[in-house]
Design brief:
The complex is a heterodimer of chains A (389) and B (149). Chain A has helices spanning 14-20, 22-25, 36-56, 69-83, 99-110, 128-134, 157-166, 238-276, 303-312, 332-336, 341-345, 358-378; strands at residues 2-3, 63-66, 90-94, 114-118, 139-143, 170-174, 193-197, 208-212, 280-283, 293-298, 315-316, 347-351. Chain A has 389 residues and is α/β, with parallel strands linked by helices. In chain A, helix 7 links the parallel strand 5 (139-143) and strand 6 (170-174). Chain B is 36% helix and 17% strand. Chain B is built from five helices and three strands; from the N terminus they run αβββαααα. The chains are: A alpha/beta (389), B alpha+beta (149).
Chain lengths: 389, 149
């Protein structure tokens, strides 16, 4: 099997697994229990918290653990919106957010908040002028993702954080696709709230975290015990937290070298695709991107058919977000970038990871070429005679 | 207790993929009757699009003595659209016009041994294309004699 869908999930690092295991088998105490056996779990969890804080450039007390990136997004967006309700009711986000933020904003609209969905340019980038124009006295929260899960396009979050700060507006960024992938510390973005998820950086599934800058107004979404500074009730997932912390520090350690290796492989892969497959294009190529992601469009063919064609050859890629599999709607991200519904329908995402090798990408280019050619022979849509790039 | 891990060391490459069964995969991999009929052999032509998902299908028929002698199709769409298009042409080939008219999307799904619920609408595309081609054949031969002079 050739696995090229690392933006969907990544394999658990063996070293992370080894470190997690004792917290399931021997040190299974409740981290809130008052005796030493519980304290053992609590110490491991707090060491993990300190490690995560160090990896992203935060203080230990600024990390809140939860069960997923989606939950972290929900806590950030709903929690800040609720805490700031008295100050205003306007939220600014983008039209290319992950569903975890997009659908949460839509739900908040139903609760009476006003939401602005900023457009993006042809490369998927938010225009800062548009952001500035959208801000009003009523704006309480700006939420813009760090890197897009489908295209890898990096938003100018540093600039956005500065603009928000000047106006006293809370800024959240969904960093699920950047945590552990970039050499820079995440807090350097200047965001007040940052979400991330362990299984995207070779950690376990079922655990995520939210960075909450000290003093940021936020109220819990899950109430109960006093866990996680009162922001997320529920017995902590100690093995998961230990796993997240270990996985993040391992990923951050190798991020500089990995970035260079992956960007080189990804760029060579894209050049081979563009040179050997007529009617192909790379989406978001003109914008800064995370080094592992490539979003490709092929004229006159359907993305799901390409994915199935490659699966039959043992190669895993996806049509975009794993969450939209089965969704007949073309990608909202690509539509927002100005692609026609037909172009968006003919798109796939290839995302590289730690174990990806050059020869796997060469095999993927060959398989893409064969599959696209076969599907075009069946396709009822005439391709334009001049190949686009 | 059953071990949920049993037999899962390797992905099940023989099993269903993307929620499709083997018959659907077979028709996706080796679609029958793909292509276009030349104008001289075409007695009816249908072009339909599925506005719900952007899929599109073209279908050509040659009618001899009230029977579908030749049939050909081209499809733009998901694996479900390609497989159901292919199966539809298999069901219609050799049938009388009256029999072909009665083919439903359920017949296509049944012949394929089922298709995921969210893909059921795909099977309508082929049926609609066939109906459109039959209508075109009728308009070309007002006497409904089928055979060309």
């Amino acid at each position: 099997m050739i696995y090229l869908d690392h933006n969907a999930t990544t394999p658990l690092d063996r070293r992370v697994f080894e470190i997690m295991t004792p917290y399931m088998t021997e040190r299974w105490g409740n981290s809130s229990s008052p005796y030493r056996f519980g304290n053992q779990a609590r110490i491991a969890m707090e060491k993990g918290r300190a490690r995560v804080a160090e990896c992203i450039g935060a203080e230990t007390g600024e990390i809140v653990f939860c069960a997923s990136g989606t939950e972290a997004d929900n806590l950030a967006v709903r929690g800040a919106a609720a805490a700031l309700r008295a100050r205003g009711n306007h939220i600014v986000t983008t039209s290319v957010e992950h569903h975890a933020v997009l659908y949460t904003c839509r739900a908040l609209e139903a609760e009476g908040y006003r939401v602005t969905y900023l457009p993006v340019d042809g490369d998927g980038l938010v225009r800062l002028e548009e952001l500035e124009k959208s801000l009003t006295e009523e704006t309480i929260l700006v939420t813009v993702m760090h890197a897009n899960n489908e295209t890898g396009v990096l938003q100018p979050v540093g600039e956005i954080a500065r603009i928000a700060r000047e106006r006293g507006i809370v800024f959240h960024s969904d960093a699920v696709q950047t945590a552990g992938k970039l050499p820079e510390k995440l807090c350097g973005t200047g965001a007040d709230l940052l979400s991330f998820s362990a299984h995207k950086f070779y950690g376990p599934k079922g655990v995520g975290a939210l960075y909450v800058r000290k003093g940021t107004p936020i109220s819990p979404r899950i109430t109960g015990g006093p866990h996680e500074h009162g922001l997320r009730a529920g017995t902590e997932n100690v093995p998961g937290i230990v796993g997240l912390a270990t996985a993040l520090s391992l990923a951050v350690e190798s991020a500089a070298a990995e970035t260079e290796r992956l960007a080189g492989m990804r760029d060579r892969f894209e050049i081979r695709v563009l040179e050997t497959i007529p009617g192909s294009r790379v989406n978001g190529r003109g914008a800064p991107r995370v080094p592992n992601t490539s979003n490709l469009s092929f004229d006159a063919v359907d993305g799901e058919s390409i994915v199935l064609g490659l699966d039959l050859g043992g190669i895993c890629i996806s049509t975009g977000s794993a969450c939209s599999t089965g969704d007949p709607e073309p990608s909202h991200v690509l539509l927002a970038m100005g692609l026609s519904p037909k172009e968006a329908q003919g798109s796939v995402r290839v995302s590289l990871g730690r174990h990806t090798e050059e020869k796997e990408l060469e095999a993927a280019v060959d398989a893409l070429g064969r599959t696209v050619a076969r599907l075009r022979a069946i396709s009822s849509i005439q391709r334009p005679t001049a190949p686009s790039s | 207790m059953d071990n949920p891990d049993e037999g899962m060391e390797q992905p099940d490459f023989a099993g269903p993929i993307l929620f499709y069964n083997e018959e659907v995969i077979e028709h996706f991999t080796n679609p029958r009757n793909v292509g276009e009929l030349p104008e001289a052999e075409t007695d009816g032509y249908g072009l339909v699009g599925d506005p719900s998902c952007g899929d599109q299908m073209k279908l050509w028929i040659q009618v001899r003595e009230g029977r579908i002698e030749k049939i050909a199709f081209k499809s733009f769409g998901c694996p479900g659209a390609i497989a159901t298009s292919s199966m539809l042409t298999e069901l219609a080939r050799g049938k009388s016009i009256e029999e072909a008219r009665r083919i439903t999307d359920d017949d296509v799904v049944e012949a394929l041994g089922g298709i995921p619920e969210r893909k059921k609408h795909c099977s309508l595309l082929g049926v609609m294309a066939l109906q459109a081609a039959i209508q075109d054949w009728e308009s070309r031969t007002p006497e409904n004699g089928g055979a060309r002079p």
